[in-house]
Amino acid sequence: HKAKLSRQHIEIYSHSDRDPAELFSLESDLRIAVANKDFVLYYQPKVNIQNGSVDSVEALIRWMHPERGVVSPGDFIPLAEETGLIIKLGEIALELACQQAKAWQDEGHPLRVAVNVSAMQFHQEDFVEQVLDKLRQTGLPPKLLELEITESVVMGDVERVKDTMTHLSQLGISISIDDFGTGYSSLQYLNLFPIQTLKIDRSFVQSIESRTSQAPIVSTIIAMAQTLGLEVIAEGVETEEQVDFLWKHGCNLVQGFIYFRPMPAEQVISKIIALPAL
Ligand code: C2E
Ligand code: CA
Ligand code: CA
Ligand code: CA
Q1: CB 45 within 8 A of CB 54
Q2: pTM of the predicted model over 0.80
Q3: Whose CA is nearest to atom 23 of ligand 1?
């Protein structure tokens, strides 16, 4: 536990010339930030390359640190998970996403927003109620909410996971499996659970043109999704070659720097409208 903590500090504070005692303040900073809700969501569009439209957006959390500026989730999500702060953080993300999606809908831009949900958050007994509360509080229709869940969620009590997913799905919320292919979990659940979409992990996508190509894994996931009647999206797409490969194999949804980087909410609508035909 301690070793992990100090690794976190080194990553985030290594370039600091501040007092060494402050190296130990990341956890307390994070606690304060969670209490103050010092977070914003950035949004990255998911693009349909068949018709050049934006399918939906993914909400990605950012910590607005008073001195450090914008801190990426890679620098604090692991610590949040170790300390249990991820539960409160997940609630903040869900709330911000629902508020924003509702605001867009009210402005005449109904855009589905996908929120990342950690395993710990999903396994909370009252998770469905939490989600329902946010929908009620904001007035967001459930069909404008998607939850991205990693394979690690699925490991554990299969029946309970299935109940939770079924409940969410019956409400009209869509569920996607994030980082698909990295989790070593059973493929059995794909048929058992009400899942709409598989997200092919960036590590596979980025290897497409490399010498140690995992392209066959990408094409296999696409084919499998099609066979099972699931949507499939590739994340972390950066190059034309990757897009060509995905297109050729029938994956029509693409998310990545090649089209959009995650951006503040204020920029989303204008950038989407300005999207040139692909
Ligand atoms: P993820 O869910 O797999 O999200 C994709 C990550 O890849 C994002 O990093 C995104 O900015 C980045 N990305 C998108 N396109 C490209 C690309 O073309 N190239 C490259 N190199 N990267 C790309 P980000 O925003 O730093 O988030 C990292 C991870 O933090 C996420 O991975 C997710 O696991 C977690 N995370 C983010 N927001 C939340 C949240 O609200 N709740 C929870 N529980 N986890 C979150
Ligand atoms: Ca995600
Ligand atoms: Ca990923
Ligand atoms: Ca992830």
Answers
A1: yes
A2: yes
A3: 236
